[in-house]
Amino acid sequence: MKVFIALFLLFLIEGTWAAIFSWHYVTPFLYLTLIGLMYVSLYGRWESALGFGLVFGLLYDIVYTDLLGIYLFTFSLIPLLVSFVLKYIGENFFSVVITFTFMILVFSFGIFSVMTAVGGTTMTIQTLLVEQIPGTLAVNAVAIALLYVPMTRYVAPRPIAKRG
């Protein structure tokens, strides 16, 4: 329940950031909910990350898009990919930041590709690469670094005390 509340707070912060600062393509997207889901999948149980990904992906689709399934699929898939990749290359601060940043890039291109395929965006690939991606990567790298210590402490499973 605590993890759900934390992810919901990240969702609200992300929604207010987007509402306040979204005025042009240059505005970087801050993916706090996705970052939180990635931390849950890495330091928590991947089953809970999959469930939270489905819930928050559906919430994203209902609130922000006209199509159901875009964020539902990506919010479930990207955190699982992160957890599998980091289990093989090792988990430290720099590997987490680099892998999360790369997955945010994959997420941005994935959403752009789907939205272009269904005709839901007027953004060109040049606008995406030149105006949006650099700012989005910078803002999210800072958010990943700032959330590293709180999320690793908050999400990491605590050992169960032995009785007797």
UniProtKB/TrEMBL annotation:
Transmembrane regions: 28-44, 70-89, 96-117, 137-156
Species of the source: Exiguobacterium aurantiacum
Keywords per UniProt: Cell membrane, Cell shape, Membrane, Transmembrane, Transmembrane helix
Record has Nucleus as a keyword: no
Protein location: Cell membrane
Protein name per its UniProtKB record: Rod shape-determining protein MreD
Sequence similarity: Belongs to the MreD family.
NCBIfam families tied to this protein: shape_MreD (TIGR03426)
Protein's membrane topology: Multi-pass membrane protein
InterPro entries referenced in this protein's UniProt entry, alphabetically: Cell_shape_determining_MreD
